[in-house]
Amino acid sequence: MGNKLYVGNLPYSVRDGDLEQAFSAFGQVSSAKVMMERDTGRSKGFGFVEMGTDAEAQAAISGMNGQSMGGRDLVVNEARPMEARPPRSGGFGGGRRDGGGFGGGEGQFRSPYGTGRRRDDRGGY
């Protein structure tokens, strides 16, 4: 059993200090972190709490799992290591080996009608 806990189903109004205060009833809280959206600064609705000992962590799981906070029932369990995600592919021009991007090749513009002819200097096909 580890002493790092996952805390899910948090109300979006909960911040680090609120989490630390709630879990301090079960022992020493080494750290408490609510995960936030990078772009908006809004809570993601989950966080992590690190307790001082494994026994305190177990007591916090028993005491807080299923308890209501801000009208939501918390999910508290032992944190698991983050799983590696596969690399992202696609997007705007990335990951293609056939000329990439939108045009498909050097100086070549494709007709929306699928003819595949090169555009001449006057802009026609």
TrEMBL record:
Residues 82-125 are annotated as: Disordered. One of its GO terms (molecular function) is RNA binding. The keyword RNA-binding applies. Signal peptide: none annotated. SMART domains: RRM. Keywords: RNA-binding. InterPro entries: Nucleotide-bd_a/b_plait_sf, RBD_domain_sf, RRM2_NsCP33-like, RRM_dom, SLIRP/GR-RBP-like. Residues 3-81 form the RRM domain. Residues 90-107 have a biased composition (Gly residues). PANTHER family: HETEROGENEOUS NUCLEAR RIBONUCLEOPROTEIN 87F-RELATED. This is Polyadenylate binding protein. It comes from Tepidimonas fonticaldi.
